[in-house]
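Spend some time on this chain, tokens included, and walk me through the fold:

. . .
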Amino acid sequence: MKSFFARRALVFVALALVLAVGVAATAFDMDELRARWSSLSADEKDVMRERFERYQAMGETERAALAEKSRRIDLLARRMYRGLSDSERARFDDLGPKQRRELLREMAVDHARDIGERIQAKLPAHAMARLESASADDWVDFLEEFKRRQRLRMDQVLSNLGQELELDESEVRRLRNLDDDERGRKFLELMQRRSQRAVADLPPGLARERWAEIQQLPPDDFFEAIMELREAYPGFGRPPGSPLPPPRIGADDAEGEAVERTPVPPELALTLNRVLHPSLEERLDLVDLDAAHRGVEISKRRRGRILRLFEESGVLPDVERRRLTILPDGRFFHRVRSLLRHGIPVHGEEPETPE
């Protein structure tokens, strides 16, 4: 049986891919697929044959879910490639085709997992419990229901945005009647307009140059940048008077017990968020390692930087700092994200999250 954190990671990716918007389907290039197969070693071909046999043994529902997940990961990887800087793209394009595919897919999966964790923070505990224990068929049913609810919610969100941005009612109706992907793209464009209009003064720690860069991003990347900034500044990019999200109960408070917390200082939160996301430069420096060893080394470096940041800032109580030091990597990074989203416990030691 998969561990608690392995199952949760799969849930995060699934949730993120359900909500992936701003991407368009691309037909398979058969010449590219043949070239990929020819480039594989004998052992790699054996692995691929074994995977194909497992795929053939799946039911139709499970196959469809797997194919959709793979398609969206590939589309997300292409979008991330388009977002590289000129210097990053120059280094990346010097790699061989196999290394480029591996790195892009790693980045896409990590990115999807992070988005999924943000979504998870807004889900009721009973919904997460159902997902984590679900069979393949149950997953598909749950995610279809999740998508249906998101469509209904999007109708209301578009109506609200239309009022805020003073759009004609006919334009709002047109947006609500678009297909899911196109409606998602239009939603991101409107959110970008809304957020840019709402920002008058920048909070401490956010450089004016960085905000100028963010404003030049395409709508999907802009939206994700805003979501990341709101981890540190909950009211950033919201119109004056907008209600802030209610305090969230973290996984460590599953029994509902109140825990006194203090927020992570915003500037430290921004820095920690950057460290939690490995850059392409880091991956390129380790490109000669296989994917598994590269992941281990990246985790080791990130962990060291995070512990140093907490040590230098002095914001963690001794009990929390000791706890972080002994946690294995999966639990360590989950705990750091929990501290960023829910705050630092002021007193005592909270219950352990189960394996």
About this structure: The mean pLDDT is 75. Strands lie at 261-262, 344-345.
